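Researcher: Checking consistency across runs. Here is Glycoside hydrolase family 43 protein again:
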Amino acid sequence: MIQNPILPGFNPDPSIVRVGDDYYIATSTFEWYPGVQIHHSRDLVNWRLLTRPLTRASQLDMLGAPDSCGVWAPCLTHADGLFWLIFTDVKRYGRTSTGGATGSASLRDFHNYLVTSPAIDGPWSDPVYLNSSGFDPSLFHDDDGRKYLLNQLWDHRPGGNRFNGIVAQEYSVAERRLVGRRENIFPGTAHGLTEAPHLYRRNGYYYLLTAEGGTGWHHGVTMARSRSLHGPYELHPDMTILTSRNRPDAALQRAGHADLVDTPDGRTYIAYLCGRPLRNRGTCTLGRETALQPVVWGEDGWLRTVDGDAMPALTAAAPGLPQHPFPATPVRENFDDGQLPIDFQWLRSPWPDELFSLAARPGHLRLHGRESLGSTFRQALVARRQQSHCYSASTVVDFMPEHYQQQAGLVCYYNASKFHYLYITQDETHGRHLRVMSSLPNHVQTDTFTAPVPLPPDGQVHLRVEVDDERLHFGWRATGNNGDADAGAWQWLPQQFDASILSDEANAPGQPNFTGAFVGMACQDMSGARLHADFDWFAYRGRPYCADPKALPCD
C-alpha cells in the first residue's frame, strides 16, 4: 500500500521517471542548496533521498535570490543513454502574479537550463541556457528522436494574462540551443494560472498535462490531447483529472502539478504535489509535499483516477512490485564522517566552505558567523526539513560570544521573514545569555524577543524544540566540563510559540511563499570577526501528537 505523501515535508513539483526497474522523482528546492532533490524507489512505496545534482557554482549560484526564488519545477527524463534535467533558476518573482499589476511588479526573471548525466548520481554537466520566457520547463523526447522544450509563458504587459499559456519549441542537441519558431500550443482554461506542462505520446495522441488554478487551495491537474504536437488540443471531458478544489474533506489539499509514469506491465501512476494543513490553523507548515496514486485509461482514451472522482488519495494501491525498503534515516547525526548528512541543506551559496566546516573540529559541524537571518547572501544556516506536524529536535553547541552582535543556536525557519530562533549571545548587562527572536509576518508586532535567560559563563549548551501542530516550545540545559555527562535538567522557556507562522499561508500581503518549514543550526557575527559555533550533533524525530511535550524524553 502506498501511504501519501510519499515524500513528506517540502518536496514540491514532482517529476517522475522510470529507468528499468528504478523510479526517480525530482522536486524543487527553491533557495536551498544544493539544487534539486532526487528520490529513488524500486517499488513505488519505499523512497530514499538519493542525490542533489546542482552542486557547484558553474551550475547554480543563488546569492541574492529573494525568498521562494531559486530552483523551480525540475523536469527529469531519460533518453539516448542520458538523464536530462531541466530546471528554472528564478532571480526575481515580485509582489503579485495576477493581472492588473503595475509598474515593474509584473516583471520576472525566469532562466531555464538543461544539465545531463550518464548516471543519476552524476557527474552532471554544466548547464545549457535555454530561455527566460517563463517557468516550469519540461523536455519532451518524441518518437522520431526530436526534442521539444515546453514552458509556461509569462506576459508582463499591463492588464494581460500573466500565465499566457504553454509554449513549445524544438531543442537541437547538436547545436545545444532552441531552434525554430516558438508556438503557443495551449492557452489554458477558465481556471487560469496555467503552468507545469508535461507531454506524453500514447496511441497516436499527444497528451498534455498542466496544472491550473494556482498552487494553493484551487490547484488542479488539467489534461488535453491532440493528434499533432503543435495542436490544436481538445480538453478532457472532465477538464480537471485530479484536484481537492472545493473539497474541504480531502486529507490532501492543494493537489496539482503532476507527472505520469508507467510500470513495466503498463499500469500508470500519477505523482503530484499536495499539502496537509494543520487541523487548528489550516496552514501548511510542511509546505508542498509529493503524493502518488494509480490512474486508469478509459475506453475513450482519457485518464482518470481509479474511482473516477478526481480526488487525491491518502492511501493507494501499490503496483505489487517486490518490496524494496531502505535503511531508516538516523535520528541523531553526529557529524563524524566529514560529510554533511544528505538530509541537511544550506541557503543560496555555492561556496559552503565560507559558511561551515566538518573538518575544522572533527566530529563537529562548525558554523562560521556570517550575515543575519534576513540575509539573501551569505548566511551560516544548516537545516533539515520538518517532515511531520509533530517532532522533537535537539542539538548541543559550543559557543562563546563576546557581544550582542554574535549569535548562534537552534532555529525553526521558513524564510527570512518567518522564523523562531533560540540563540545564545552576550552583552554587557546580562553576560552570556539565551533568548528567542521571532519574525511574525502576519502578526501586529512582526519582530519579538523574549526576556534574556542567564547562562553559565562557559561550557556547552543543549538546545531543544518540541513542535506539536501549531504549538512550539523551546528548552535548554547547560553542561559542565565533562559535556553531556554533566548536563543538568531541562529548563523550559515559559512562552508557547506559534508554529503556524512557519507555513505557506502565513505571510505579508503579496509575498510569494512556496517552500516549507526547516529546523537546524545557525550562527551570525555582524561584527565581522566571524566567530564560529561548534555543534556536536543534531537529532530530529517525527512523532505523534503530545499534549505535554515537555514531559517527553529527549533523544
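Researcher: Does this match what you'd expect to see?
Model: One thing to look at in this run: The chain has two domains: 2-186+262-316, 332-551.
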